[in-house]
Specification:
heterodimer; A: 332 residues; mainly alpha; globular; B: alpha+beta; 3-stranded antiparallel beta sheet; 17 helices
C-alpha cells in the first residue's frame, strides 16, 4: 500500500506537478516581491520590509494572501452570481493548466499527452484567459468592470495574432510543435538568435497579454479603478491578482523553451542532468519574468487607442516580418 | 437623479439613446483612485467623452464663513489650510489685503523673505501636481520622485519655520520667522539638486515615448477659450496667454530680480506640464538672486513697529516677529483686495472690515475653481483614458476649489 502511494508520488506526472507548483509559488512570490523592491529602489524607497525584515520583506505577499483569505467575500447584489464566483477559479485554472506541456528538463514534464502539439496547446489555453477576464468584467455589473472587460477584449484582438505568429515562426523553424524537440533543435543556436524579430514580437505580445506596463490598460487605475477586477474581494481578488502573474510565468517558460534554449546547455538523461535542466529552464524563465516586472518602474500607461494602433501597425508587421524570416530559413 | 436599484443595471442604462447613440453614464469619484475629492459625471460614447458635468463640493469647509468668526491674524493659519502645498502664496494674498486695510508697510527684508518663500511654495506646488499627474498617467516612479523632492523642500520649511506644511510665516507688515543662516546654504544646495533631478524626471515621464503620447495633443484648450473660460496659472499660460500676477501686479521683489514668465503655445496637457517645469527653473533663478541680494534689517515694517513702545522694538523683531498687538488689532472700516500668483494660478482675497477685531466678510477666489470650466472644456471630446492626463495637467485640487 505504502509502496503504491510512493510509486504514485514519484511517478513523473505527480512528481513534476508538485515540483512545478512549488516552483510556481516561489517564482510568483519572488516576482511580485522583486517588482515592488525594484520599483522601490528606483523610487528612492525601501519597499516591503516589516514582514520578515531579515529576508528583505520577502514574505510580505504571504501576509497579504493571508489577509485576503480572511477578508469578507462580497458578492454584489446585481451581479451575475454564478459567473461572478466561478470566474476567478476558472481564470486561475486556465493559466495553470498550460504548464502541463512545459518541458522543464528532458524527462521532467507533467504529461506526454498531446506533446506533439504541446506548444500550440499551451498557447491556446493561455490565450483563453482573455475570454474569462471579459466574462468576470461582465458578471460584475459594474461600469468600470464593464469598460475594463471591453478593453481586455479589444486588446486581445491586438495581441492575439502577433503572439500566435511569433510562436508559429519558431514552430516553422524547428519544424515541430513538440516543445521537447524544439529545445533539441536549439543545441547550436537559441531561438532568440535564430529569429530575433519573432522574439521581440513575442516579448511585446506577452507584455500586452499579461497586462504589464506600459500596457496595463484594461485595469488602468487612472480611470477604470481595477478594470474587470474592481468588484472582487477576498479570495477571488487574490486569484484575480495572481492569475496574470501565473500567466506571465507560463508565457515565460514557453519563451524560455522556444527562444532561449530551454534546459540547454544542460542535457542528458540522468537524474542529475534533469535537476540541473529544471533549474536552468526556471532561471531563464525567471529572467523573462524579471524583465516584464521591471517595466513597471519606468513606464507610464499607454492609451488604449495608441496601444491598438501600435499592435495593429507595429506589432503585427513585426510578427509578419518574423514569420518571413522563418519562411526564409525554410526555403534556404 | 433619483435612481432605483433595479434601474441602475448596465443594460437598462445603456439603452436610452440620444441621436441614436448608445452612451454610458459613469460616476467618476468621489471614491476613485484618481478623482480626488470630487465627482465628475461622465457620459461616454464608446471611448469618447461626450458629456461631462463636475460635481465638486465634497470638501467644502466654509472657509469664507469661518473667516468671519476669527480675528485677522488667526485667519492666516486657517486660510493656508486651503492649499497646503501652496501655503505661502495663499496667506500672502490675504495678508496683502489686510495690509492695505491697515495701510501697513513691509520691511525690505520681509519682502525678500516673502519672495523666497513664495517661490519655494510654487516649487512645492508644482512638484505636488507633477507627482500626482505622473501617477495619474501610470508612472509611479514620477510620483515618488516628485514627492521625494518635495519632501526635502518641506524639511527646509521646517528648518526655518518649525512646520513642514503650515508655516504661517507671513504676517501683516512682516515675515514671522527669520530663517537661520544654514537655511540659505541648504536652499542653494537644494536648488542645484532639484534642477538636476528635474531633468531626470522630465526624461523619465514626459520625454518617455509613452508619457509623451499620453500628454501630447490631449485636452486642447485654445487661447481664446482659455481666456473666455477664465483659466489661470499654468492652465492659461499653457494656452499661450502671457499673464502672470508677479510681473503684472509688481508685488514682492519680483521687479528687482531677473526672470521670465513661462508661456507655452501648445494648449494641451504637455504644454501645461512644460509650463510647470519651466516655472520651477525660473523659481530657482529668482530664489538664487533674492538670497544674494537679501538686505539686513527688521522683520516688520515701520508702521507695525511704531505701534509698540520704543524700548520693546529691538526685541520684537530680532529673530521672530513678536507683536501682541496683532491680537487686539482693530481694522478701520473699508474693503481691500490682495492677489498673488500661486503655483496653480491666481489667489484673490477680498476683505471687508467694519472696525472690529474680525473681518466682516472674506471673499476668496482660488485658481482651481477658476480652472474648473477650462478643465471640463478640455475633457469634452477626448478619450476616457485622457481624463486623468487632463485632470493632472490642470492640477485641479478639490480642497482648494471648494474652500
Amino acid at each position: 500500500m505504502v509502496e503504491v502511494i510512493i510509486d504514485i508520488l514519484i511517478s513523473r506526472p505527480v512528481f513534476t506537478f508538485v515540483l512545478v507548483l512549488v516552483v510556481l509559488l516561489l517564482v510568483i512570490l519572488t516576482a511580485i516581491w522583486a517588482e515592488r523592491k525594484i520599483a522601490a529602489r528606483v523610487q528612492m524607497r525601501v519597499g516591503p520590509y516589516h514582514i520578515s525584515p531579515r529576508i528583505g520583506g520577502w514574505m510580505q505577499l504571504m501576509a497579504d494572501g493571508l489577509r485576503f483569505t480572511f477578508q469578507e467575500l462580497i458578492i454584489p447584489r446585481d451581479s451575475d452570481r454564478l459567473l461572478y464566483v466561478l470566474g476567478p477559479p476558472i481564470l486561475f485554472t486556465l493559466v495553470i493548466v498550460p504548464l502541463a506541456w512545459m518541458p522543464y528538463a528532458p524527462n521532467l514534464y507533467i504529461t506526454g499527452l498531446g506533446m506533439d502539439v504541446g506548444v500550440l496547446l499551451a498557447l491556446g489555453i493561455l490565450m483563453l484567459s482573455a475570454i474569462v477576464i471579459s466574462m468576470i468584467g461582465w458578471a460584475s455589473n459594474d461600469r468600470f468592470a464593464y469598460i475594463g472587460a471591453a478593453r481586455e477584449a479589444l486588446l486581445t484582438s491586438g495581441y492575439e495574432i502577433p503572439l500566435f505568429l511569433s510562436v508559429f515562426s519558431m514552430v516553422l523553424i524547428y519544424e515541430t510543435a513538440n516543445p521537447l524537440e524544439a529545445v533539441a533543435r536549439q543545441s547550436a543556436l537559441p531561438g532568440a538568435i535564430l529569429n530575433p524579430i519573432a522574439f521581440l514580437a513575442y516579448l511585446i505580445s506577452v507584455a500586452i497579454a499579461t497586462s504589464r506596463f506600459p500596457f496595463e490598460i484594461a485595469d488602468y487605475e487612472g480611470d477604470v479603478v481595477l478594470g474587470p477586477y474592481t468588484e472582487y474581494s477576498s479570495v477571488t481578488f487574490m486569484l484575480n491578482m495572481a492569475g496574470p502573474y501565473v500567466a506571465l510565468y507560463g508565457y515565460s517558460v514557453l519563451g524560455a523553451v522556444l527562444f532561449l534554449g530551454g534546459w540547454l546547455p544542460a542535457g542528458g538523461g540522468s537524474l542529475m542532468y534533469n535537476v540541473i535542466g529544471f533549474i536552468v529552464t526556471n532561471i531563464k524563465a525567471f529572467i523573462l519574468v524579471m524583465f516584464m516586472v521591471f517595466l513597471r518602474s519606468i513606464m507610464p500607461v499607454l492609451r488604449l487607442d495608441h496601444a491598438m494602433l501600435f499592435s495593429w501597425k507595429g506589432l503585427f508587421a513585426l510578427s509578419i516580418a518574423g514569420l518571413l524570416v522563418s519562411v526564409a530559413y525554410m526555403v534556404i | 437623479m433619483a435612481m432605483r436599484m433595479e434601474d441602475y443595471g448596465l443594460v437598462l442604462k445603456e439603452e436610452p439613446a440620444r441621436g441614436g447613440r448608445r452612451t454610458l453614464e459613469i460616476f467618476y469619484g468621489p471614491q476613485h483612485p484618481s478623482s480626488g475629492h470630487m465627482r465628475i459625471i461622465l457620459e461616454v460614447d464608446g471611448d469618447i467623452i461626450v458629456g461631462i458635468q463636475p460635481d465638486p463640493g465634497y470638501v467644502h469647509r466654509t472657509m469664507e464663513k469661518l473667516g468671519e468668526t476669527r480675528i485677522y491674524v488667526h485667519n492666516i493659519p486657517l486660510f493656508e489650510r486651503m492649499s497646503l502645498p501652496d501655503a505661502i502664496n495663499v496667506t500672502w494674498a490675504y495678508v496683502m489685503a489686510v495690509e492695505r486695510l491697515l495701510d501697513l508697510d513691509v520691511s525690505p527684508r520681509a519682502e525678500y523673505l516673502r519672495t523666497i518663500f513664495a517661490e519655494l511654495s510654487r516649487i512645492s506646488t508644482h512638484l505636488y501636481d507633477l507627482g500626482l499627474h505622473a501617477i495619474m498617467i501610470g508612472s509611479s516612479t514620477g510620483f515618488m520622485w516628485a514627492y521625494g523632492l518635495r519632501e526635502l523642500l518641506v524639511d527646509l520649511w521646517a528648518v526655518s519655520t518649525g512646520s513642514r506644511t503650515t508655516p504661517s510665516t507671513i504676517v501683516p507688515g512682516g515675515f514671522r520667522f527669520a530663517p537661520p543662516k544654514a537655511f540659505y546654504e541648504k536652499v542653494l544646495g537644494y536648488l542645484d539638486f532639484l534642477e538636476r533631478k528635474l531633468d531626470e524626471l522630465v526624461r523619465l515621464v514626459i520625454k518617455n515615448p509613452v508619457g509623451y503620447s499620453r500628454l501630447k495633443d490631449v485636452g486642447y484648450v485654445s487661447r481664446d477659450e482659455a481666456a473666455k473660460l477664465g483659466a489661470t496659472g499654468p492652465g492659461a499660460r499653457g494656452s499661450g496667454i502671457d499673464y502672470d500676477m508677479r510681473r503684472d501686479l509688481r508685488y514682492g521683489v519680483y521687479d528687482q530680480v531677473e526672470w521670465n514668465v513661462v508661456v507655452e503655445d501648445g494648449g494641451d496637457s504637455l504644454a501645461r506640464t512644460m509650463v510647470r517645469i519651466g516655472e520651477m527653473r525660473e523659481s530657482a533663478r529668482i530664489i538664487r538672486q533674492a538670497i544674494k541680494d537679501i538686505p539686513e534689517g527688521a522683520l516688520a515694517g515701520h508702521k507695525m513697529l511704531e505701534r509698540i513702545p520704543p524700548n520693546l522694538r529691538p526685541r520684537a523683531t530680532d529673530d521672530q516677529v513678536r507683536f501682541t498687538q496683532y491680537l487686539t488689532m482693530r481694522v478701520p472700516p473699508g474693503e481691500a483686495h490682495g492677489m498673488t500668483e500661486g503655483g496653480r494660478g491666481r489667489y484673490f482675497f477680498h476683505v471687508v472690515s467694519d472696525d472690529s477685531l474680525k473681518p466682516y466678510r472674506v471673499r476668496i477666489s482660488t485658481p482651481s475653481w477658476q480652472n474648473l470650466r477650462a478643465f471640463m472644456r478640455a475633457c469634452l471630446g477626448s478619450r476616457l483614458m485622457d481624463l486623468p492626463a487632463i485632470y493632472g495637467s490642470f492640477g485641479y485640487f478639490p480642497p482648494e476649489a471648494d474652500r
